[in-house]
Amino acid sequence: MTLAIFDLDNTLIAGDSDHLWGEFLCVQRMVDEASFRAANEIFYADYQRGELDIKAYLTFALAPLAGRDPRALQELQEAFISDYITPILLPAAGKLIQKHRDQGDRLLIITATNEFVTRPIAALLGIEELLGCAVEIKDGLLTGRPTGILTYREGKVQRLMEWLASEEETLEGAWFYSDSHNDLPLLEIVDNPVAVDPDPTLAQHGREHGWPQISLRNQRL
């Protein structure tokens, strides 16, 4: 079965769910707004430059969830989806997902954003399989710490390879859609890399290597 792999943020949705989650926490007054927002902006700028310390960022982003039962946070997740994610859904992304589903491809999202934030988004998009940064749970409570292979840059490749082995899958004929130069390690190993509304670095790299470039924001497939 051919894999159709998708990045999430700024690829299937018109924004960054990780960054928006930080904004949501500020609005919900779960953090000190001024200091948290300032740090969140710095981390986001680091990500855009390809210089993010992913472990440091996740420790920062997950800290407000420490000591909480994830089951008790469902209403919070639903409010985030309703207020911040539904408005940035892309109809063309839905059509692309459906195209691969109709072809019989196996759909997978792989994202650097943590799974607590992204699993409900994947469900909203109708994609059951997701690889994101895992959130540690001990004694039924979130610890506020990441765990496992962090799915950022080369970590996406490492985690995907682990998943492929466990699922007895291969990358033969696989597609990968992404907007970010941070995903070059994975884009470079699939048979069908596609740049989606790419950042300038990825756009240039894609042109040099003859990769297709599409827009899901301007309805160009």
Note down, in words, how this protein is organized.
This protein is α/β, with parallel strands linked by helices and 221 residues long. The protein has a single domain, classed as Rossmann fold. It contains nine helices and seven strands; from the N terminus they run βαααααβαββαβαβαβ. The chain has helices at residues 17-27, 33-49, 54-62, 74-85, 91-102, 115-124, 154-167, 184-187, 200-209; strands at 3-6, 106-114, 130-138, 141-147, 175-178, 192-196, 213-214. A seven-stranded mixed β-sheet has the order 4-3-2-1-5-6-7, sandwiched between helices. The model has no long low-confidence stretch (mean pLDDT 95).
The portion of residues assigned to helices is 40-55%
Order of helices and strands: EHHHHHEHEEHEHEHE
Total number of strands: 7
Low-confidence stretches: none
Helix vs. strand class: alpha/beta
The CATH architecture assignment turns out to be 3-Layer(aba) Sandwich
First-residue to last-residue Cα separation: 23 Å
Rounded mean pLDDT is 95
CATH class annotation: Alpha Beta
Number of helices: 9
Percentage of residues in strands: 15-25%
CATH superfamily: HAD superfamily/HAD-like
- What order do the strands of the largest sheet run in, or round the barrel if closed? 4-3-2-1-5-6-7
Radius of gyration equals 17 Å
And the CATH topology? Rossmann fold
The dominant shape is: globular
Largest sheet: 7 strands, mixed
